[in-house]
Amino acid sequence: MLNLERLRTLDAVARYGSVGGAADGLHVTTSAVSQQLAKLERETGQQLLAKQGRGVRLTDAGRLLAAHAARILTQVEFARADLEAQRGQAIGELLIGAFPTAARGVLPAALARLRAEHPRLTVSLEEMRPEEAVRRVERGDLDLAVVLDWDNRPTTLPAGLSKAAILDDPVDVAVPEGHRLAGRDDIVLEDLAADEWVSWPKGEFCHDWLLCTLRGKGIEPRISHLADEHHTQLALVAAGFGVVVSPRLGRGPVPDGVRMVPVRHAMCRHVFAVWRTGAGDRPSVRAAVGALCAVGRAVAGAAGRGPRPGARETPAPPQ
């Protein structure tokens, strides 16, 4: 009988294109991946990998089995969903990943709602970047993720994933208290063409978005400081080291020495939940998406914002 975890390993090699990529994706060592594949070759009696330069490639038999593995893993997900749906209750364990400001601004209330309404459901939250969360949902390490994109930089999800809008999150520009624009009712980005910027670290989705957005306005930004946490970014602004885009979700108290100025042509992040399509029938996933969307509506209503008309996101699974 074929071992499910070994099939999952082969599927990862097919998707990531290398043993090293599969190891990174599965959070294991390359040695562990190689051992699993060697055992799978012994189980099948066929060579599944062949050397190619310094790497490897799937043989014809490897590609054939990898295609079956992808379908088998999808069917396992459907089977899990069907069994849970038959019980009709949100019980068991649910793993959620969320980016930091969503983990701070949405998840505590959503988790409290789930605990009150579904006491037999155990939910675990892990904070992570959106791109990592999507990868981990895709390969089955997470049941659900809360991720984001921007008006001018939408995210294309891999096939087999579904999503639902949670809320739209406008952003302001944080400037030092003594900045020449600190007293303005609003600004346009061109007003900041000569300023230094504080940004997210290089390689992050939001850093790339900032560069793209400013360059689209004809601004070549001078990015002087990189910081992952919004609180660190605002501390740098307070000390006079630049300006920064500051989303409102999960912002918390604005530190002394910082002024928030709205952008005249509003910029907005779109926050949404992502899950494997086959898991959408699981009562626990439906309950979690419903709780996130309900809290998102409450947060957006309190701040006068919500999902934009004609949003790209698909509806949440029915309750």
Describe what you observe in this structure:
The chain is of the alpha/beta class. It has 2 domains: 4-84, Arc Repressor Mutant, subunit A; 90-319, D-Maltodextrin-Binding Protein, domain 2. Helices cover 41% and strands 23% of the residues. It contains 10 helices and 11 strands. The chain has helices at residues 4-16, 19-26, 30-44, 60-87, 100-105, 107-117, 130-138, 205-216, 230-238, 283-303, and strands spanning 49-52, 55-58, 92-98, 121-127, 144-150, 161-176, 196-199, 222-226, 244-247, 258-262, 268-276. The strands form 3 sheets. Strands 3, 4, 5, 6, 9, 10 and 11 form a 7-stranded mixed beta sheet that branches. A two-stranded antiparallel ribbon has the order 1-2. Mean pLDDT is 87; it is low at 306-316.
